[in-house]
Design brief:
The complex is a heterodimer of chains A (about 110) and B (about 110). Chain A is mainly β. In chain A, strands 2, 4, 5, 9, 10 and 11 form a 6-stranded mixed β-sheet that branches. In chain A, a hairpin with a 4-residue loop joins strand 7 and strand 8. The model of chain A has no long low-confidence stretch (mean pLDDT about 95). In chain B, strands 2, 4, 5, 6, 9, 10 and 11 form a 7-stranded mixed β-sheet that branches. In chain B, a hairpin with a 5-residue loop joins strand 7 and strand 8. The chains are: A mainly beta (about 110), B mainly beta (about 110). Chains A and B meet through strand 4, strand 5, strand 9 and strand 10 of A and strand 4, strand 5, strand 9 and strand 10 of B.
């Protein structure tokens, strides 16, 4: 059973516009959420995270929103740039589970000039 | 500061052969992890080590063994490779700072089992 789901395999956005990537989870014990970015033939790189005690975290062009009642989080990228084209993974963990991450399937973002 | 390094980058095995994937981190992190990534799927945890001297199973441990050689190194061993183990393998180490945590990943090992 997939505990973390990214239902959109791909997303195409025009440069300068907003990219919104979505992620749903089923396990209410998750209390920490992360977004990773992955280029082909490279390992995932950490982008931004949010604790379950918050509903928003911002870092430059990247903002993560958490809606605990809906078990939903989203990553907003504004403005989108061609260099943002990559696969984005959301991941979830519980503090008392040794840092084990449960990943979604990923969303491939394509930002067109 | 190299972060997380993995060797080899790419490997081809025949069914039944064995091999060890090596991972090392120079960030003095206590916890280390092995994941695999298959097409259309996210990363799945194989094994992890919360600290030197301890290891635990993740979601998909069957067919694998691990060794936490010291604080820096965490190896993954396939005793008898199967085509189902064709995948990209990522090692990671974890940094915690207060209530924040991050896992840093290596560049991956691409494994093809024929």
């Amino acid at each position: 059973d997939q505990q973390v789901k990214q239902n959109s395999p791909s997303l195409s956005v025009q440069e300068g516009r907003i990219s919104i990537l979505n992620c749903d989870y089923t396990n209410s014990m998750f209390d920490y959420f992360l977004w990773y970015k992955k280029y082909p033939a490279e390992g995932p790189t950490f982008l931004i995270s949010i604790s379950s005690i918050k509903d928003k975290n911002e870092d430059g062009r990247f903002t993560v929103f958490l809606n605990k009642s809906a078990k939903h989080l989203s990553l907003h990228i504004v403005p989108s740039q061609p260099g943002d084209s990559a696969v984005y993974f959301c991941a979830a963990s519980s503090y008392n589970q040794g840092g084990k991450l449960i990943f979604g399937q990923g969303t491939e973002l394509s930002v067109k000039p | 500061n190299a972060g997380v390094t993995q060797t080899p980058k790419f490997q081809v095995l025949k069914t039944g052969q064995s091999m060890t994937l090596q991972c090392a981190q120079d960030m003095n992190h206590n916890s280390m992890y092995w994941y695999r990534q298959d097409p259309g799927m996210g990363l799945r945890l194989i094994y992890y080590s919360a600290s030197e001297g301890t290891t635990d199973k993740g979601e998909v441990p069957n067919g694998y063994n691990v060794s936490r050689l010291n604080k820096r190194e965490f190896s993954l061993r396939l005793e008898s490779a199967a085509p189902s183990q064709t995948s990209v393998y990522f090692c990671a180490s974890r940094r915690t700072s207060g209530t924040q945590e991050t896992q840093y990943f290596g560049p991956g090992t691409r494994l093809l089992v024929l």
